[in-house]
Amino acid sequence: MTKMLASVNGGDEAEIALAGGADIVDLKDPAAGALGAVAIDVIRQTMGTVAGRKPVSAVAGDLPMEPDTIRAKVEEIAATGVDYVKIGFFPSADAVACAEALASLAARTRLIGVLFADLQPDLGLLAVLARHGFHGAMLDTAKKDGRRLLDHLPPDQLHGFVDECRELGLKVGLAGSLEAPDIPRLLPMLPDFLGFRGALCDQSQREGAIELEAVRQIRELIPDERPAGTASSVDYRLLAARGYSPGAVDPSLGTDKIFVRDFVLPVQIGAYSFEHGHTQKVRFDVVADVLRVTHAPEDMRHVFSYDIIMDGIRTIVARGHVQLSEALAEQVAALVLEDPRVMQVRVRVEKLELGPGGVGVEIERKRASEQAHSARHHGIAPADSLFYGGGQKGSSS
């Protein structure tokens, strides 16, 4: 399960984070940079406040990439007994040497190497971290200028980072001015933790104090390991982890149609030889029928985000060449139906460069229970539509 990491500046904020349900209490000084370190006595005091209720991490500071400097600071922080120490790896020719200098310490302390999405991170460092015994790696942003992690790296590249960490045996975290709407976009990647600071503060000002209600709202967007039977108001893709099922929703609430229209991307697609080795423009139209969970949606806890659809399409396209429009449409439909609230989805894939009009396919797919219901009442499942321009014609490959 993905855990929630809440960055705090000391014991008082740690208590708020714990009351709001944070899984990891992370110590940092927001006024001292992206990874500003708090004083050692603040770490010790906060450790006493938390008293083992949740794991505690601490950042080592925005340090120069000097092996001796970094090792000395990390050793000092590790001596406080924190569960994790986070070390920033800024672009430097000495980054590998810094990782090597921490190898012996990594054998007894869980170290997290932090790369920065807005500083052209060298993902080759992940293998170095793994080789020298680091516990995990995470992506953050170095410049707190209002731009978020997803402003610097698209979902398909973040998927690559997460997958690479997994292959290397590293725990993986994502952070970087994350906001509530980012959560449903990142959860499908299954990171081990998501890190927050600004989103927990008044008016999202990271140097302000964190607020209990803000912590709770973020917590409610991240499925946690609650005991069976515990009530929850969260309604996202991993809701099955909390026992969510479509049958638990009041049917009188009905469904909403969430759509993405005229979404055009360059795609490697086609069965003909002349279509290989380059991209062509493809237009996607997707309409999902989504179960409502409340009469009065108020925030991201109550909606299905259209960003999930667009991110999913981008990720599928980034995997490489697809032979058939039908195959591409099926992949998009399957991705949308992963959310247990989606009852059916209509996907239209249209190639725009093969003639005076578009050519492609439109499919409609339902959740298995809905498909069975339709078959019983109509005796046949909905047919796919092949089209050329405004009418149906031939193959869509």
UniProtKB/TrEMBL annotation:
Species assigned in the record: Pseudaminobacter salicylatoxidans
Pathway recorded for this protein: Cofactor biosynthesis; tetrahydrofolate biosynthesis; 2-amino-4-hydroxy-6-hydroxymethyl-7,8-dihydropteridine diphosphate from 7,8-dihydroneopterin triphosphate: step 3/4
Domain of life: Bacteria
Protein name per UniProt: 4-(hydroxymethyl)-2-furancarboxaldehyde-phosphate synthase
The keyword Transcription regulation belongs to this UniProt entry's keyword annotation: no
Enzyme type, top EC level: lyase
Function: Catalyzes the formation of 4-(hydroxymethyl)-2-furancarboxaldehyde phosphate (4-HFC-P) from two molecules of glyceraldehyde-3-P (GA-3-P).
InterPro entries found in the cross-reference section: 4HFCP_synth, Dihydroneopterin_aldolase, FolB_dom, GTP-CH-I_C/QueF
Region spans: Disordered: 368-397
Chemical reaction(s) catalysed: 7,8-dihydroneopterin = 6-hydroxymethyl-7,8-dihydropterin + glycolaldehyde; 2 D-glyceraldehyde 3-phosphate = 4-(hydroxymethyl)-2-furancarboxaldehyde phosphate + phosphate + 2 H2O
Keyword vocabulary terms for this entry: Folate biosynthesis, Lyase, Schiff base
GO molecular function, one term: dihydroneopterin aldolase activity
The enzyme's E.C. designation: 4.1.2.25, 4.2.3.153
Position of the signal peptide: none
Ranges annotated as biased composition (Gly residues): 388-397
GO cellular component terms given for this protein: cytoplasm
Domain Dihydroneopterin aldolase/epimerase: 258-365
GO BP term, example: folic acid biosynthetic process
Keyword Lyase: yes
Family of the protein in this entry: Belongs to the DHNA family.
